[in-house]
Amino acid sequence: MKTQKPYFAFIKQRINAAHRIIIAGHTGPDFDNVGSCLALYEVLRAMRKGVVIASDFHESIWREVAMDKLPNQVKMSSLALYKPDVVFLLDYGKKEKIDASVLWLIEQTKPFVITIDHHEYQSQFGDIVWVDSAFVSTTEMLHMLFSKIKARIPEQANYYLLLGVWGDTGAFAYQRASKRLLRMVNALVTQGDEIQRIMELLHQKMDADEFRLYGKLLASISYDASLGLGVCKIRTQIPEGMNRTVMYEMKRIKGLRVALFLKRFAKTGYWKASVWGAQHNVLDLNEFARRFGGGGHFNAAGFKTKLSGAKIIQMVKQAMRENCVSS
């Protein structure tokens, strides 16, 4: 059932009855996705449930967040041998963002599927589909779930839940903080150093060569002051996560409304675009990204296309002009 009502008691019943649970997020995970998966894993482990995360943990973000203390896993190549009672699908937005191995497992074993996602409803699926874009992150939704079912939140899960909020709001740079969210943050800061650890993770240190490359990327940024559009366009390989750091820096440009990061993949000919909105953005970036089969949120979205980089920039500018006129 598609619903904005999470049916907390029903979810708790399914967890209590389950012997084997799988957690899966989306491909190309971000901080909210990784934080959601790891937080739910820690809470279910505290409930003495057999639980694994469906990932080979190839992306460095898993090791960075978990500080190399990665949880138990089922290798994706062996996923068919694991017959779950319940599968949690977290923070994925569109069905095609779920790994094909997980989709195949669901089709073959017919587990009870619970989707929890703060993206707008697109093609999410399951027996319970809790989709609510009023939340700033999926970790915020999970925190509410844990509170409602009276689940104990281990200390490490506190950190993961905070990380998801910080990552998807850009440390509250482009998402407003509700009173509910601030109460959640206050409840989760128990050790005093969680926010400092998160900020260090979001702004990772670089070696000298990476720092020089980072400087070149910043120097390459173009800015259209009439629209408030900042653009960084690259064709070279960069360290994982550096695009995110560049986007954070672009948001410091006075008058910026939209930041666009474009990276071309020579083998496929695709441009991958990440687009973020700043304080005065009026363009729905999720709707814009969906033109290309992508998606996300009002102020943060992504897509890929074989259109030229110049054409993508032209389309962003046109959309911003149209929105400025209509607003």
Automatic annotation (TrEMBL):
Q: Which residues form the DDH domain?
A: 20-163
Q: Which Gene3D superfamilies match?
A: 3.10.310.30, inorganic pyrophosphatase (n-terminal core)
Q: What domain of life does the UniProt record list for this protein's source?
A: Bacteria
Q: State the signal peptide span.
A: none
**SUPFAM superfamilies found in the cross-reference section:** DHH phosphoesterases
Pfam families, per database record = DHH (PF01368)
> PANTHER family from the entry?
BIFUNCTIONAL OLIGORIBONUCLEASE AND PAP PHOSPHATASE NRNA
Q: What is the protein name given in its UniProt record?
A: DDH domain-containing protein
